[in-house]
Design brief:
With about 350 residues, the protein is an alpha/beta fold. It has helices spanning about 10-15, 20-30, 45-55, 115, 125-140, 165-175, 195-200, 215-225, 230-245, 265-275, 300-310, 335-345; strands at about 5, 55, 60-65, 70-75, 85-90, 95-100, 100-105, 120, 150-155, 185-190, 205-210, 250-255, 280-285, 315-320.
Length: about 350
């Protein structure tokens, strides 16, 4: 009899496998709260059915690094000994979980450590979901972390380059009898690899964020060297998705001193935003230091000047404070290169 990873089973599939929806509810109640059903006192029949049909977690949390601000970075080892990183960010009385969708990334953003790893492989849906389970377990066991609230696909990898597995994972996240996470509490962040991939976002119930980084083609090509499509073409694709979903777009822009932080760069962004329906909200992210480049964040004065131009144009604009940079857990700093090199050399 073939066995399946427990997190890969939908509620209906689990109910069929365990011969009862009540049994499936009991198992998912444990998983949803970060508890291991294989270690729980479930009764002989249910325990036997569980062990005969399903496998326990192949993934495990191997490292935990916590920054003074409370941000917690988890290193998660996969079955093939590769690793990904997941970050728990406590802020304003709640915890946001930043999850990965790939080991490495093919997009090659020049300011991002993950992009310098290149793509090693996609994650399976159950490997994405294990990060949610592990985060909830950490929160349950912690005395310091506030309650779980949001999920952001802003960790390692480009979610649209692993769309089918990401979609499966999101379906499991939002199902009312599995993880039961509200769809609007999940944000998928993408650089927008192509108009055709952006169009796939129409089928997801989540919120969307565009990691644009520069709204002028030459500068964006420098920052995201795998870009093959113009800002105009990508903007049109996002506009079409937003019309269908009837919602606005989150815009993320990593600000780099003397690269994309000029007033003219802000005006280019305003021009782009005017082509989008709904209410666009902008999040400026002063670049975090990463090995292998000399990028630095702009001065506070430059950041405020950039922000003021967006405000004057009528757009909400916030500046994201760096969280977890002391433990390389901040935006653009996730990398497990040493481990990957060791495994791939074997």
């Amino acid at each position: 009899m073939s066995q399946h990873p427990i997190l890969s089973c939908s509620f209906d599939a689990l109910a069929q496998t365990l011969a009862g929806s009540g049994r499936a509810k009991a198992i998912w109640s444990l998983l949803r709260n970060g508890q291991d059903p294989f270690q729980a006192p479930l009764g002989k029949k249910l325990t036997r059915a569980l062990n005969q049909n399903l496998t326990a977690f192949d993934e495990r949390v191997t490292t935990r690094h916590q920054s003074p601000c409370g941000t917690l970075k988890l290193g998660i080892a996969l079955q093939d000994k590769l690793e990904v990183e997941t970050v728990l960010i406590p802020m304003n009385g709640r915890t946001t979980v930043c999850i990965s969708s790939q080991v490495g990334c093919a997009r090659g953003c020049t300011f991002c450590s993950t992009g310098q790893m290149n793509l090693i492989r996609n994650l399976k849906a159950h490997e994405i979901l294990f990060q949610v389970y592990a985060a909830r377990r950490c929160i349950q066991e912690s005395q310091d972390l506030p309650p779980f609230r949001n999920i952001v696909f802003m960790g390692m990898g480009e979610p649209l380059n692993n769309f089918e597995e990401v979609k499966k994972a999101i379906t499991q996240m939002v199902h009312p009898l599995t993880f039961a996470i509200g769809a609007k509490r999940i944000t998928l962040s993408t650089v927008g690899p192509s108009p055709s991939l952006i169009q796939k976002l129409k089928t997801l119930p989540t919120r969307i964020a565009w990691s644009i980084h520069a709204a002028e083609d030459t500068k964006r090509q420098r920052l995201v060297p795998t870009t093959k499509h113009s800002i105009a073409a990508l903007t049109d694709a996002f506009a079409d998705v937003l019309h269908r979903k009837k919602e606005g777009l989150f815009i993320e822009l990593t600000l780099i001193d003397n690269v994309n932080d000029r007033d003219e760069d802000a005006h280019h962004l305003v021009t782009c935003l005017k082509r989008l329906p709904g209410e666009s909200r902008v999040n400026l992210i002063p670049v975090n230091p990463t090995p292998g480049n000399s990028f630095a964040p702009p001065t506070p004065e430059r950041i405020q000047s950039f922000r003021a131009i967006l405000h004057e144009a009528g757009y909400f604009c916030s500046v994201r404070p760096s969280r977890g940079d002391e433990e390389a857990a901040a935006c653009g700093q996730l990398i497990t290169l040493r481990t990957q090199e060791g495994v791939l050399a074997q």
